[in-house]
Amino acid sequence: MKILITGGAGFIGSHVVRRFVSNYPTYEIYNLDALTYAGNLENLRDVENRPNYNFVKGDIVDEEFIKDLFEKHTFDGVIHLAAESHVDRSITDPLAFVRTNIIGTVNLLNAFRDLWKDNFDEKRFYHVSTDEVYGSLGADGLFTETTAYDPNSPYSASKASSDHFVRAYGETYGLPYVMSNCSNNYGPNHFPEKLIPLFINNIIENKPLPVYGDGKYTRDWLFVEDHARAIDMVFHKGKNHETYNIGGFNEWQNIDLVKLLCDIMDRKLGRTPGSSQELITYVKDRPGHDLRYAIDADKINKELGWEPSVTFEQGLEKTIDWFLANEKWLNNVTSGEYQEYYDKMYS
Ligand code: NAD
Ligand code: TYD
């Protein structure tokens, strides 16, 4: 099996690449990544010399490049994770999200449709998506696989669009696809623009913790390795043309999560209990901010036997320990361009 993994140098992609390279030594894994600000080959240092791992630098939007790649390789499957992934960046630059998330996905769909057109047997296009396509929940209810799409941010609109294209290629051309829509991930290698790693970094540096609005927004958090395991199961055992919702059964209001994070960080850093909470600063809200996300992961649980393997407290401890032990990684990704981003967003 020759498998293409797109976005494999990013946060979730690197955990998926590591899992596939390690668990399936007979598969040839090709990691295709443009190495944007979010892509980092440091995330894969431990597997980069494995004989079944290959890295290809390239942009999924570049039609000619994709054509050349597909002339060289006959892939049997793809796990497509490459994307622009941060809501706040999508508010300042929506077109970047249209390019990668929509045009890039359609480019890949065309390439696989043309490559496999004579025989779809044993082939698989796996599109990795987000629960944000379903929009926002009120105080009650959960997102199921049949919840109507109702995206509110340019990020979620671009992911929703790519999901529709994947379905359409399944219906129109018979392309064998599976898809999953997952809740918020956290864990090692998470880029410090998202809530948890940003706040870990700010606590280390004694900088303000910018909580948007009243902090009462709710997210359903899943440890990244549990997502990678779910992706493995859906890739191997999921039914063609089906969607699986993946979630942590783990809802937290932002402010409660931030307080928990502060308390664990105080303990780990040997600081006075309560000192990190003093860094909490309420700031202007994100426009179009979705109130609540929560996943009903019953289908993947019943059909494929998946469930999260760690509690939130265990996952957070592992995550914080990783960040504290990988100061160099954190310093590298927060230098240069990151500072400009940070000043633009938070000054
Ligand atoms: P990320 O931003 O950390 O990584 C994205 C990767 O894609 C980076 O390595 C980047 O270099 C690469 N990339 C970006 N544009 C590219 C292009 N044009 N061509 C080739 N490579 C390109 O993202 P992530 O958080 O790891 O998310 C991965 C996927 O999972 C995304 O599709 C995202 O929508 C989805 N997802 C993320 C979460 C989450 O909580 N982070 C939750 C559910 C679903
Ligand atoms: P984020 O990690 O950006 O994920 P998403 O927007 O995809 O859910 O944000 C998680 C929650 O934390 C969301 O409600 C926005 C909030 N948030 C803040 O309050 N402050 C911040 O600086 C960031 C980045 C997010």
User: In what range is the share of β-strand residues?
Assistant: 15-25%
Gyration radius from CA atoms, angstroms = 20 Å
Which CATH architecture of the domain at 2-190 and 222-251 and 288-310 would you pick?
A: 3-Layer(aba) Sandwich
Number of strands: 12
Strand order, main sheet: write it out: 3-2-1-4-5-6-10
Order of helices and strands: EHEEHEHHEHEEHEEHEEHEHHHH
Helix count equals 12
State the helical fraction: 40-55%
Measure the end-to-end span: 49 Å
CATH superfamily membership of the domain at 2-190 and 222-251 and 288-310: NAD(P)-binding Rossmann-like Domain
Q: What is the highest CATH level, the class of the domain at 2-190 and 222-251 and 288-310?
A: Alpha Beta
Q: What structural class results from the helix and strand content? A: alpha/beta
Largest sheet: 7 strands, parallel
Q: Unreliable segments (pLDDT under 50, ≥5 consecutive)?
A: none
Shape: globular
Give the averaged pLDDT, no decimals.
97
CATH topology of the domain at 2-190 and 222-251 and 288-310: Rossmann fold
**Distinct compounds present:** nicotinamide-adenine-dinucleotide, thymidine-5'-diphosphate
